[in-house]
Amino acid sequence: MLSLTILLLIASNGFAQPTTKLSDQDKFVIQARNEKLAKRRLWRLLLHYRSGPFGLESEASSPSFFLASDGRRNPEAEIEADIAAMFGPGTQNREKIICRFPARYAWLKSKLEIKTAAVSCPAFEAWKKGVFAPSISLIFASAYLGNPASLYGHTFFRLNRNPSHPLLDPAINFAAHPHTKNGILFALGGLLGFFPGRYSALPYYIKVQQYGDFENRDLWEYQLNLDSAAINRLLTHLWELNGVGFPYYFFNKNCSYQILELIEVADPRVHLIDHWPLYVIPADTIRAIKKAGLVEKETYEPSILTQIISRRNHLRPKEIRLISRLIQSPKAALKTLKTLPPKRQARILDLAGEYLQYQTDYRKKKEDASKNVRYQLLSARAELGISSPSDQIPVPVPPEDGHPSARMSFGQSAGSTNFTEFDWRPGLHDLLDPPEGYNSNGELAMMNLDLRRDLRTGRAYLHDLDLVKILAVPPFDPIARKPSWDFNFGVKTADELAPKDPWNANYFGGRLGGGYSLSMPLVPWKETNYALLDADAGTGQIFRNLYRLGGGTRIGTVAYLTPHWRLRLEGFAFGYFLGDTRPDIGACAESQYDLTKSVSLRLNAERNGADQQAGLNFLIYY
Question: What is the pLDDT of residue 2?
Fold first, then answer.
């Protein structure tokens, strides 16, 4: 019976019809499946696929970026749809798809070893010819606490086409496109991913005006050692991203994350973002590209304000006061000026002219009011007939050489309760952290988690979770005039209301206010003093009527005693007129000493109403 079956199968095969010949498109699809091209690193980089909690998914949110209906989550279906569209029949539509996705087309053509005539894409070729450069620089704009979009700094590309005129070079930027101009709503929207992010190309001088001039932010340039093939691949892919939206998250899927993705497309051998699942901070991205050996040259570009302040440091106090008089009453001040040596006059007049221009352009001083003053200053300067002195502006510590962004600490305290403590802060900096590479007069933390364990009861509890915590206390400067302000919200503990059982005193609250800061030049160390008026609100079961609303003041000082030792003192008093009206009055003292660049010790003592604590914490930056 078995033999008969075999004979019948042989006979049937002998009379079978010849198989249908496969088309080129089908052959390419089979080849792509056999070689598992959809799993190749560059294909997944070009489509921005990343593994997430719900499996593999592209971070690009625009449906037009995909040719397969399920292409956002299915790289195999997408690669087969691309093969069909780019190498199947239908010349007109095929050329349109190829010109829309030239990087995908070039990669598929090389991997499938397809030899076809070149496709003409005039718009793409004209664009690439207009932006192609022999080198690319990553630009870091220092942190700016006056703009919620740039609290951590900002990174973007400059295409180095004109070595002698870099301001005319194109810049490649990725930024959120918010639906609001309100700073607080922008911060919340950025945290929760409510705004789309997109790439854009614009002249570099516009970014310099925005960051270096208007916002007084220093710029750091890192020229990358990418070869021409890598630059060509990066720009070709950038064309594909025109109009494509990406979910923007302030803490991780931000400008720096997207810039690193473009570098990986340019050079797929480097892995820059695999180890950053939770957050990406711009300064850390500089550390990453330097660690990968991608930086060829580094340049510092001070802002207009930094240049003015640096030149002012060469003047004596009486000469600085004379600058203000020259701008306000030039006729009388010029008589005093002429009693000084010519070289001192030149310094003073140069700086007075720069300061007047700064006031006109960036502080919105009326142009009509300054024309006559400018003419008198320029005339007096021309009469001197000597060249301007050349002053070397000091180069500060670059952002990547500051302390690592993340910090954890372990400690123990005694007082009203005895507890051990674990504190974790993913970023970025407070006033007692090592100041090199950071804004020493600013404090910024997000998602700062403080967990404690009571030693008497063994109970573990959440003490604080600062979702956002910002403090800006730049000392008053008649030139800069940066505001002092603070803002924070999150889960807090009303220690003053429950000193013996703080685990019952959690509430959700926030503070917002502003004030004044100044430095005292008479002391032998650098220090900042501040006074702030804050509105305060909170809601939780610890409060009578479940909430409290009021305000108060914070007065403090931060002293930089040595390069490795800092001290902070602060007193506060808050009263409440709605809800729970019990006051919150106290004071604290903290001191930090750096053992190494990444390890410090911090002593603290605090009294808050009936609650008293003193402790020691061991800090690790990583």
Answer: 34
